[in-house]
Amino acid sequence: MNTIPKIRKRGGLGHTRRNVELLILCLPVIIILFLFCYLPMPGLVLAFKKFRPLEGIWGSPWLGLKNFGFFKSTQIWLVTRNTLLYNLGFIVLTPILSVAIAIILYEIGNARQIKAYQTIYFLPHFLSWVVVSIMLYAFLNSDQGFVNGIIVMFGGERISWYTEAKYWPFILIFMGLWKSVGYNTVIYYAGLVGIDPGLYEAASIDGAGRWKRTIYITIPMLIPLLVILTILGLGRIFFADFGLFYQLPLRSGPLLPTTDVINYYTVRTLMISRNYGMGTAIGLYQSVMGLVLVLITNWAAKKVSGGEHGLF
Predict the structure, then answer these.
(1) CB–CB of 227/310 below 8 Å?
(2) Nearest Cα to 133, choosing from 241, 240, 250?
(3) Helix, strand, or coil here: 237?
(4) Cβ-contact 27, 20 below 8 angstroms
(5) Overall pTM surpassing 0.90 (yes/no)
(6) Which of 276, 251, 234, 240 lies closest to 50, judged by CA?
(7) Could you report the per-residue pLDDT of 121-163, keeping only the tens digit for each?
(8) What is each CA distance from 4 to 1, 7, 8, in whole angstroms?
(9) Chain-centre distance of CA 99, in angstroms?
(10) CATH code given to domain 69-124+180-243+252-304
């Protein structure tokens, strides 16, 4: 007699009925994704057409691959390099700082202090880049800026921050981290709260201090969350934060070698040439490259972890 128990399949109508409440909760998000992400997808055909407003998307003549002629320009490779390097910096530095702050908050233990610190860290996330650009200008103004005032006080010379491109990689990365680390800290702190306290108690009994508990319990338990957020971040690696690169440098021409990214380049191209076909082609290029990176990263994460970690 076969005594091996039958494995119940997760699919089927019964499984759907048991999770109907969760499906209803997901319904608004699914509708929004369909309306704003999937429904406009047929418009990608513009990447292969010469768009004429009076003839519409489907009536416009075909151009083949002519809209992808931007690959011949050295500018597209410059903005691609800038986009990749900035996003790689954010992908590497954001988890390090966010996890460190989340662990510090978790070790504090005082609920009131934690709420106060979370509010302070989370507040920049809600600020508009327009507001942040005004604040930054108050610091970096060539004549009356706060930073130049300190430099002059110590005997230095004023720096024309908005014409010196070499300073802006550090400024943009710092401001990007300042605005995003608080949001990610809350996510990692939620992951810390979900760790079984019994693991820390057992480690303490065995003589493990805070540092060893962090290395051997906290960080390994956060790895699945780190992997998922990293994969999602790599999926957006070809998409820069438009507000960060458009508002903060105040659209200064001398700064373009270090502040120009794909999104900003696309907008400038559309404003100058009104070439909607090329704009769509650039967007398709970004999306395809992002998809390829997500698939490769997800495959690598599952391969390294033996199938335990991955987005899908």
Answers:
(1) yes
(2) 250
(3) coil
(4) no
(5) no
(6) 276
(7) 888 888 899 999 999 999 998 888 889 889 888 888 888 899 9
(8) 9, 9, 12
(9) 16
(10) 1.10.3720.10
